[in-house]
Amino acid sequence: MSVDVVIVMGSKADVDFSSRIANALERFGVSYVMRIASAHKTPEKVLEILREYPDAVFITVAGRSNALSGFADANTPNPVIACPPYSSSFAGMDILSSLRMPSGVAPLVVLDPENAALAAVKILALRDERLKKKVVDYQNEKKREVEEADREISV
Fold this sequence. Notes:
It contains six helices and five strands; from the N terminus they run E-H-E-H-E-H-E-H-E-H-H. By secondary structure, the chain is α/β, with parallel strands linked by helices. It has a single domain, classed as Rossmann fold (3-Layer(aba) Sandwich), CATH 3.40.50.1970. It has a five-stranded parallel beta sheet with strand order 2-1-3-4-5, sandwiched between helices.
């Protein structure tokens, strides 16, 4: 079975946050799976997952020291989108582990889970006209929401 997006979580604690990504992918009709593997604790499992889905876009969800995103990106030619859950620990500065990567390692970082899904859909839409139309329709819907909000307060 072909899967479009693989959401790889660092631990079970990331399931609720990742469900927001999954819900957004469902709205676009994009197939996905959710998996749990840790770059620190189970690096071989991360590599197995990357090999299991050779045509997928990967969305990685891991907080604290987010080695998962960089590790995944360094081991696949596929797009990797890091979507670390916000943490008030360290005043949110643990986000830096997602932003600072060594040369040759370039996961995209998108903080909002719904927008991480949208980024994955846009990547997939490069080769799928049906998805491209859905993205355009979604963007038009967002534009209409802004126009409607403006009309509501302009009265």
